[in-house]
Structure formats: C-alpha cells, structure tokens
C-alpha cells in the first residue's frame, strides 16, 4: 500500500538545441564601430533582429560602465546579446548577459574510429532541396554544401558550412563557409541577393555590381575581399 501511495516523480526531460550565433568583436573607437553596425542595418533592415548575438570583448578594454553603455547601444538597435566572452567576470553585473566560455565555430567534431569490421556510418556532407526557399524561411546546414534546385525568396536565408548552389534566383541572403571554410563559394543562376557572406566577409545589395544583377554569378573570397563575378 505504501509503495502504491508513493507519488511517481517524473524526470525532467532536457533537450539540446544549437543555434548559429553572430559573434560581434567591437573595436575602438566604439562609436565608429557602432556606425559600421548602423550601416549594415541600413542596408539590410532587420538582419540582426531576433538572432542570437555574442559579444567578444577580448579586443577592447572596457570598464563596467563602458560595457553597460555598449549593451544599451546594441539594444537600442534591436540587437539582443545572448552572452559575453573575453572579459573578466568581475566587470559584469547580474543584470548583464552571462559570461560564456567554450564557444567554437560550427565545426563538426570527428567521431571515434570504429572497428575495422564494422561498416562506417558517414554523415551527409551535402543537403539537396528540391523546393524553393520561400520568404521568411531559414535553411541552416553547417555540415557541408547546400544545393537548391529552386529559388531563394526575398527575406529568406540559407546558411551553409560549405558552398551554396542555387539553380534559380537568389533574392534573399546566402551565407557560406560559416565554419571557417574560406574556399567556399556561392553560385546562383540569377543574382538579386540582399546579402552574400563567406566566412564572415559580406557584401550587401548596394555593394553588388548593378551590371551583374539578374544574371548568373558566383562569389568567392580573395584574401579578405569578396569577389562577385559573372558565371560563364
């Protein structure tokens, strides 16, 4: 009877979930750095809205008040900071985002080798989408290349660890090489992109040569500069 009367406790179910976060690395003077953020927002309104953002303060020496002012300035721009890196915990107040550690790029860690007799089970290194990516949709595949047989609508976003191949029009945002692959490229049959990025280097619609718009094009990195040329 006593055993039956005991209240059955239900275990708390925890689930892991990962997000691709932007890492901001402020530089001095902070006001000039904020103006660069304003320029990006002006070219692509709402680009940072609702997205996880981490601030890396390892390149600047800010006081507690300075950190607070920076966070407020970003919040005024509708940029919500998820966490802070690269600073002594003593400079943070309880009301500030937490101090994070162990952050790393979106690199898939290799698994332990299996026994020779066991059949290796490899993960896919490419993602094929046969349907268009419509406005407001986001596709994230940090493991490798993304190929889209249709178009990418305005306001849509494609994020890949490798290259991005679009066999239709690219009207939204495409970000390739997010896990540090500087050799990644972006290909599309009709470039009308809002933003292109490879390994963190980006160009917005205003930066793309107007002579290329509406035509097949490719983008790649040449050093620290993104090149966008016609795709012959």
UniProtKB/TrEMBL annotation:
<keyword id="KW-0131">Cell cycle</keyword>
<dbReference type="InterPro" id="IPR005526">
    <property type="entry name" value="Septum_form_inhib_MinC_C"/>
</dbReference>
<protein>
    <recommendedName>
        <fullName>Probable septum site-determining protein MinC</fullName>
    </recommendedName>
</protein>
<comment type="subunit">
    <text>Interacts with MinD and FtsZ.</text>
</comment>
<dbReference type="InterPro" id="IPR036145">
    <property type="entry name" value="MinC_C_sf"/>
</dbReference>
<dbReference type="InterPro" id="IPR016098">
    <property type="entry name" value="CAP/MinC_C"/>
</dbReference>
<feature type="domain" description="Septum formation inhibitor MinC N-terminal">
    <location>
        <begin position="13"/>
        <end position="79"/>
    </location>
</feature>
<dbReference type="InterPro" id="IPR007874">
    <property type="entry name" value="MinC_N"/>
</dbReference>
<comment type="function">
    <text>Cell division inhibitor that blocks the formation of polar Z ring septums. Rapidly oscillates between the poles of the cell to destabilize FtsZ filaments that have formed before they mature into polar Z rings. Prevents FtsZ polymerization.</text>
</comment>
<dbReference type="GO" id="GO:0051302">
    <property type="term" value="P:regulation of cell division"/>
</dbReference>
<keyword id="KW-0717">Septation</keyword>
<dbReference type="Pfam" id="PF05209">
    <property type="entry name" value="MinC_N"/>
</dbReference>
<dbReference type="GO" id="GO:0000917">
    <property type="term" value="P:division septum assembly"/>
</dbReference>
<dbReference type="GO" id="GO:1901891">
    <property type="term" value="P:regulation of cell septum assembly"/>
</dbReference>
<feature type="domain" description="Septum formation inhibitor MinC C-terminal">
    <location>
        <begin position="129"/>
        <end position="228"/>
    </location>
</feature>
<dbReference type="Pfam" id="PF03775">
    <property type="entry name" value="MinC_C"/>
</dbReference>
<comment type="similarity">
    <text>Belongs to the MinC family.</text>
</comment>
<dbReference type="GO" id="GO:0000902">
    <property type="term" value="P:cell morphogenesis"/>
</dbReference>
<dbReference type="InterPro" id="IPR013033">
    <property type="entry name" value="MinC"/>
</dbReference>
<keyword id="KW-0132">Cell division</keyword>
């Amino acid at each position: 009877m006593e055993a039956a009367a005991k209240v059955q406790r239900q275990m708390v179910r925890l689930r892991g979930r990962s997000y691709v976060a932007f890492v901001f690395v402020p530089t001095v003077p902070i006001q000039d750095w904020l103006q660069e953020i304003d320029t990006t927002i002006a070219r692509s309104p709402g680009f940072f809205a609702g997205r996880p953002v981490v601030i890396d303060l390892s390149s600047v020496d800010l006081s507690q008040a300075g950190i607070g002012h920076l966070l407020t300035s970003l919040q005024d721009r509708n940029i919500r900071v998820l966490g802070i890196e690269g600073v002594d915990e003593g400079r943070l107040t309880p009301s500030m985002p937490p101090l994070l550690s162990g952050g790393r790029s979106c690199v898939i860690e290799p698994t332990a080798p299996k026994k020779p007799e066991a059949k290796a089970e490899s993960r896919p290194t490419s993602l094929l989408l046969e349907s268009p990516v419509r406005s407001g949709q986001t596709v994230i595949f940090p493991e490798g290349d993304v190929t889209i047989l249709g178009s990418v609508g305005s306001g849509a976003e494609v994020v890949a660890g490798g290259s991005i191949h679009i066999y239709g029009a690219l009207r939204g945002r495409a970000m390739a090489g997010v896990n540090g692959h500087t050799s990644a490229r972006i290909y599309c049959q009709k470039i009308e992109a809002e933003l292109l990025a490879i390994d963190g280097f980006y160009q917005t619609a205003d930066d793309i040569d107007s002579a290329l718009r509406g035509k097949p094009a490719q983008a790649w990195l040449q050093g620290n500069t993104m090149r966008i040329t016609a795709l012959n």
